[in-house]
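Below: protein 1.
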Amino acid sequence: MPRPPYPRKPAGEALTLTPIAYTRSCFKDKFGVPRQPGLTRHAHAQLVIEPPFDREEAFRGLESASHLWLTFQFHEAVRAEWSPVVRPPRLGGNRKIGVFASRSPFRPNSLGLSVVVNEGLHREAGRLVLRIRDHDLIEGTPILDIKPYLPFADAIPGASLGWADTAPTDRLPVVFSEEAEHQLADLPSDRYPDLRALIEDVVSYDPRPSFRRGRE
């Protein structure tokens, strides 16, 4: 019997995904969030695990993983209609490329994938919480899956993407006013870890839209 020229579709085309956690982030809205994970080492977050997934045995062995893959939803970028092309900020916001050739949050299924630093599990007010760092998630981001990063399989030497082969190198100098320094000094460091360094990182990468850069 000849093989059909296309794969068989499942009985129901729509898929239902249940978040296993929600994000408590240092970034409360989209503006200023790093455009990729790993651009700032000072971005801390907690993933508050939802029942029935908040069983510690489900995370047994995760402590041996230095980094994790997170699959999540761009919940503030969901649109009724999707576009086949996007304008990546890395290309100045002027050149269009295909959505599947980009990391744009405006995608058909609004799914994101990030690698983050694993900082361990703990219980807080009865909830199971996974601490992470070096992330690009905003407050309330739904987490759909967590997997360990496998160095031998996930790191690919020589991999390339012509228009974004390297991390951004053009960074703005950041100067804190005396008043800002005093305000930072008054904040509890345990509640706002690495806040000064985080602000410096975010501002230095110029979070403004590409078409506004270079303007006063």
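Below: protein 2.
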Amino acid sequence: MTRAELKKVLVVEKIFEGHMTNKEGAAALGLTERQVIRLKQKYQNKGGARALIHGNRGRKPAHALPDEVRAKAATLYTTKYQGSNN
């Protein structure tokens, strides 16, 4: 969990405990009150802190090169095309 995600969790928990209002939470996170309300709903409905973790965590980017292509390019660079960029 990143620091930003951890901060969101702590602020949402403080709001639920009554130590902070939605407005104060929004100011602490740099969000609008409506976004804080959405975070609270997500936290409550989807199972706590895990709900606030970014959805793409652990996924490989769609535009990432396969490992075989990356290895082939590295091999060509060091053999066939060595010194061609000088």
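The helical segments are 3-17, 22-29, 33-45, 67-78.
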